[in-house]
Amino acid sequence: METIELGEISIAVTRKGIKNVHLSVHPPHGRVTLVAPTDTRLEVARAYAISKLGWIREQRQKLAAQTREAPRKFVNRESHFLWGRRHLLTVVHADCKPHVALDHKRITLTVRPESDAAKRAEVMHKWHKTLLHMQVPPLIERWERRLKVDLRGYFLQRMKTKWGSCNHRAGHIRLNTELVKKPKDLLEYVIVHEMAHLVEPTHNDRFIAILENHYPTWREARVELNELPLTAETWSE
């Protein structure tokens, strides 16, 4: 992998069989990548990056200023987000199988007395996946019809730098479990975005046209999603 150095900014360069250059600034620390068509000379890629230097710095400043959740301890009266709304947590200790219940604006986490924060986090994460499994299939079914695609499967997992991904050859998508904390319409946006890659694998003009046609508010959804608080998880790049 080649690197372009622009003052304090280091840009990792890769080449793929695409038509246009794609420049990205990744959370949480502003790592910058540039993906260029296979035959692009490094000098050309460098000139493009220089032309976007103001935009790169602007994106990095936004990430630096973005609200971050305080580390979760999974204790009483701690705030937890679910579908974009804040809920207070109640922790109940009982000698039974750990489980989670939702009642209006309160989340009740029942765990065994000896459970530590890591165990409580694990129980909550499993519950989050259960909630997502309830929401995702109907959305996939709806967008399979609209996009005229056949999705072979989906996976839920913690993802450090993406909200979702698509393996168009295998015909499946992956979704970040952090999406359970965001408004449901943003979950739908990510699903549409990833399923659109079954039609067009790259982020080219055709892909943008697909989003424009089927999900006209995709730009607003992307901005909202990227401006919401980042997780307190320790990211590694």
What does this structure look like?
The chain is an alpha/beta fold. Helices cover 37% and strands 27% of the residues. The protein has a 4-stranded mixed sheet with strand order 1-2-4-3, covered by helices on one side. It has a 4-stranded mixed sheet with strand order 5-6-8-7, covered by helices on one side. It has a 3-stranded mixed sheet with strand order 9-11-10, with helices on one face. α3 (117-147) crosses α4 and α4 packs across α6. The protein is globular and about 65 Å long. The chain starts with a strand and ends in a 10-residue tail after the last helix. The model is unreliable at 232-237 (pLDDT under 50).
Short characterization:
The chain has 237 residues and is an alpha/beta fold. The protein contains 6 helices and 11 strands. It is globular, with a radius of gyration of 20 Å.
Q: Point out poorly predicted stretches.
A: 232-237
> Pairing-aware structural class of the strands and helices?
alpha/beta
Structural Rg? 20 Å
Provide the spatial order of strands within the biggest beta sheet.
1-2-4-3
- Portion of residues in helices? 25-40%
Tags for this entry?
single chain, 237 residues, alpha/beta, 4-stranded mixed sheet, disordered C terminus
Topology, element by element:
Elements: E1 2-6, E2 9-16, E3 22-26, E4 31-37, H1 42-51, H2 53-65, E5 79-82, E6 85-93, E7 99-103, E8 106-111, H3 117-147, E9 153-157, E10 164-167, E11 172-176, H4 184-196, H5 205-214, H6 218-227
Parallel strand pairs: 2-4, 6-8, 9-11
Antiparallel strand pairs: 1-2, 3-4, 5-6, 7-8, 10-11
